[in-house]
Each structure stands twice: as structure tokens, then as C-alpha cells.
Amino acid sequence: xxxxxxxxxxxxxxxxxxxxxxxxxxxxxxxxxxxxxxxxxxxxxxxxxxxxxxxxxxxxxxxxxxxxxxxxxxxxxxxxxxxxxxxxxxxxxxxxxxxxxxxxxxxxxxxxxxxxxxxxxxxxxxxxxxxxxxxxxxxxxxxxxxxxxxxxxxxxxxxxxxxxxxxxxxxxxxxxxxxxxxxxxxxxxxxxxx
Length: 194
Hints:
four-stranded mixed beta sheet, alpha+beta
């Protein structure tokens, strides 16, 4: 390679760096705040982050050897927005990926969201009127209210705070958790070293 860092030690594609805010808390639990190793190395060279922990892996150029960061912290504290964005994913996260009618948990691709008060009845697309539903329950409920369909909600929908979404996100650890992240993440499950 011409002057750039080479992949001499066969760096795996799965060597992301955990990104912590300046207070050493993850920016996000779900999705977990991770960046690819290339972005982490770039941020280090641009002096935007502190390296907290490193992998055993090294990348080299003709004049430089760098251990890959496994945990980085921002030098400047990033404030989160007061209210989370109203997105389909955040609705699923608020409802713990669980249909609010039948109470069963589903993978994201099998979920939809449902208007408690149907839009044709004047229902709006807001935190207080949208819930997570599986396709079968959504179809069964149809263009009715939960009461008219005899399908009571598991919990009434309401706007979550960022703190609540982060707490819920901690219940869903990702498949890949590196050992060096243990001190910065607070899941109850045992960490898989690789």
C-alpha cells in the first residue's frame, strides 16, 4: 500500500471500537455505540478521542505500528436530545420488541406498528397512539380500536425518555461483546470473549 496502514496481521472485519462519551458511558446501548476499527484509528489520529483499551491486533505501515483501539472515549461530551426521535425502531425498542396485543416477542423484521386509534378515526402517528404489533394481531385488529376488537393493550403507549430507551436497550446485548468492554457495559449476561 502506498503510505497507508496495511492489514498485515489479518485484522478481522469484526474489530469494532466501543465509543464512550466523555463521562465514560456508552453513547448508546441499543444499538450499541460501535465504530469500525478504521474510523476509530482515524479519530485517534485526528485527536478527537482517547484510547481507553486496545486489542492485541496491530496494523502497520512502512513507518508506523498501531494497536487497534477496542474502547475509545470522546474528548468532548455529547449531550443527547431531550426527547428520542419518533422512529419505528424506537417504538419497537420502547415496547421491548413485543407485540402489545398478544405479548409475544418477535424479531424486528416480523414486527409492524399499529395505530391504537386508527388513522381513519382521526388517530395520529405519535408516541401516545402507536404500539408494536405482530402482523397477525395487526391484521386481526384491523380498522378498530383495541376495545372494539376485544384486544386489550399490554401497556398504554407513552413517549419514552432517552434514559428509558437506554435502560431497555441494556436488556438486549448484541451478539458480539469484546472482553475489554466489560467495565463499561452493564448487562447481566456473561460476555463471550470473541
